[in-house]
């Protein structure tokens, strides 16, 4: 069971960033059908159909190179799905970690459906973002199954537990915002840092920016999505990063008083600094592909550190239950007449 979980975790750590690479290199429709490629098992078998599609649209989403990227991601994701089925079977057979294994199996089955819809619905932003969140969910569940049994629990004040819970929630929301930025291709809508296109606070438009039932690049009425909506999507992601940073610094300040947590907190701080640096670099350097993929991987690492920290915290025993009611007779040891001791 342990070996299966660790193998699946390592494979998921490849599959999730590679999915970002496929999307960011505009290869998400390299094979416009599912699960094969033009009805074939591989791009090699579909080479003639790919050449014909490329001849019709030389600058379009279909080419042999893009098809191989897309299909390699599907092969890896399929292998991960098979491993997770084995994990679920082993968990059921041995009675160990049945609940997380069942959750993991449910998420990966949903991921398969979302992967199909991502292609057949032509990269609809709501589906692409959901697919990203599902992949991150698979990675986080596997990390918890692999690492949490080996991490010592730490007794902590309740405020640290609440702040850590808020941090994990804010990171999940920030991940969704990042997926929305990426799926709408809004990463370069704000030029410059910390301002946006020369403004300290840009003009925002919310009515179209976060409308879920629309096509890629379109407003809900079918018109082109305007630039102000893209700026709004990007700017909200930056504000989310600010909220995450404030919560994380609060967790570090309070948790550093507990020596058993310091190594974990140092890991959390390092992941945060890396992620902030990658985010700023992506804006200033115009979204180079390696840095954009690294930003996706950094988000997974940061969320993993926060969730594992939350799983380690235990409230103090005195704060788990109310204090026993003490009567004067108990304090003094005096008994009433006729009562035995």
TrEMBL record:
Superkingdom of origin organism: Bacteria
Chief localisation class: membrane
Subcellular localization(s) per the UniProt record: Membrane
Keywords for the protein's UniProt record, in alphabetical order: Cell membrane, Disulfide bond, Heme biosynthesis, Iron, Membrane, Metal-binding, Oxidoreductase, Transmembrane, Transmembrane helix
Lipid bilayer topology: Multi-pass membrane protein
Pathway: Porphyrin-containing compound metabolism
InterPro entries: COX15/CtaA_fam, COX15/CtaA_HemeA_synthase
Keyword check for Disulfide bond: yes
The UniProt record lists the keyword Kinase: no
Transmembrane stretches, start-end: 72-89, 101-122, 128-147, 159-177, 235-258, 265-285, 291-311
Entries under PANTHER family matching the protein: HEME A SYNTHASE (PTHR35457)
Name assigned to this protein: COX15/CtaA family protein
């Amino acid at each position: 069971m342990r070996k299966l979980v660790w193998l699946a975790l390592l494979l998921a750590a490849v599959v999730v960033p590679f999915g970002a690479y496929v999307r960011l290199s505009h290869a998400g429709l390299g094979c416009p059908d599912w699960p094969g490629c033009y009805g074939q098992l591989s791009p090699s078998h579909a080479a003639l159909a790919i050449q014909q599609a490329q001849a019709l649209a030389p600058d379009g989403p279909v080419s042999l190179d893009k098809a191989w990227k897309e299909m390699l991601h599907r092969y890896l994701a399929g292998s991960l799905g098979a491993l997770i089925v084995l994990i679920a079977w082993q968990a059921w057979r041995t009675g160990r970690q049945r609940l997380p294994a069942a959750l993991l199996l449910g998420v990966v089955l949903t991921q398969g459906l979302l992967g199909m819809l991502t292609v057949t619905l032509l990269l609809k932003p709501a589906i692409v973002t959901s697919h990203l969140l599902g992949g991150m969910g698979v990675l986080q569940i596997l990390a918890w199954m692999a690492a949490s049994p080996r991490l010592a629990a730490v007794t902590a004040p309740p405020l640290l537990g609440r702040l850590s819970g808020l941090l994990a929630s804010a990171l999940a929301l920030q991940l969704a915002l990042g997926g929305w930025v990426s799926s709408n291709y809004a990463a370069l809508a704000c030029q410059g840092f910390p301002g946006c296109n020369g403004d300290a606070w840009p003009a925002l438009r919310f009515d179209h920016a976060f409308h879920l039932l629309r096509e890629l690049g379109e407003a809900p009425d079918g018109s082109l999505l305007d630039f102000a909506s893209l700026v709004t999507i990007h700017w909200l992601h930056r504000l989310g990063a600010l909220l995450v940073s404030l919560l994380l610094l609060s967790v570090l300040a309070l948790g550093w008083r507990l020596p058993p947590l310091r190594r974990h907190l140092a890991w959390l701080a390092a992941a945060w600094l890396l992620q902030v640096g990658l985010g700023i670099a992506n804006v200033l350097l115009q979204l180079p592909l390696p840095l954009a993929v690294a930003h996706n991987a950094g988000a997974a690492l940061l969320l993993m550190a926060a969730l594992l920290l939350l799983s380690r915290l235990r409230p103090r025993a005195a704060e788990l239950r109310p204090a026993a009611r003490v009567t004067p007779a108990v304090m003094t040891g005096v008994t009433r007449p006729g009562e035995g001791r």
